[in-house]
Amino acid sequence: MQTVPRGAGGAIPRPLLFSARTSAAALGRVLASMLVLAVVPVVRADPGNCTGSASWYGDEFADRPTASGERYDPDKLTGAHRTLPLGSRVRVTNLVNGRSVLVTINDRGPYRRRREIYLSYGAARALGMIHRGVTRVRIELVES
After folding, report:
1. pTM score
2. What is each CA distance from 98 to 52, 54, 128, 136, in whole angstroms?
3. What confidence score (pLDDT) does residue 140 get?
C-alpha cells in the first residue's frame, strides 16, 4: 500500500495514460466532439431584440468618460451594452410594470453575469426600477 506524505491532501498521482484501450476511447470521444462542433452551426441570438435583466448606475460614475468618449451624466437616458454599436438607440421595456424608454448606448458593459444592459439613473427612474435595483426588461433595437 502506498502511503501519502503529510500535507499532500491525499492525492495519489496516476500515470498519464492508463492503457492503450482507454486512451484510444478518449481520443475517439474528442474527435467525435470536434466533428459535432464543426458540423453544427452556431446560432446567435439577435442582441438588438432580447429579454434579460437590467440594473442601473448613478452618481458614483458622474463626469467619468464613457466608451463613446462623452462624459457620463446620470440624468440622461443612456445605457451600456456589451455588443450593440455605440450611439445606437434601443427601446427598453420594464416587464414588471410595462413602462418603456428610448435609451442611447454610449458605454460598454455590463460586467456582471446575467445582466443584459446597464441603465443610467435617469433611464432607471423613467422605467420605475430605482428601488428594485434589478428588473427584467425587453430590449429592442430602434436604430444603430
Report:
1. 0.67
2. 14, 14, 10, 10
3. 96
- The identity of residue 88, as a single letter, is S
Query: Could you tell me what percent of the chain has a pLDDT over 70?
Result: 67
Q: Which residue has the cell 464543426?
A: 38
Task: Note whether 80 and 107 are within 8 A (CB).
Answer: yes
CATH number at 128 reads 2.40.40.10
Residue 55 belongs to what domain range? Answer: 49-143
Q: How many CB atoms lie within 10 A of CB 97?
A: 12
The residues, ordered by sequence, that sit 6+ positions from 19 with a Cβ below 8 Å of its Cβ are none
Residue 17 to residue 49: CA distance in whole angstroms: 48
Angstrom distance (rounded) from CA 129 to CA 54: 9
In the block, which residue shows the cell 492508463? 18
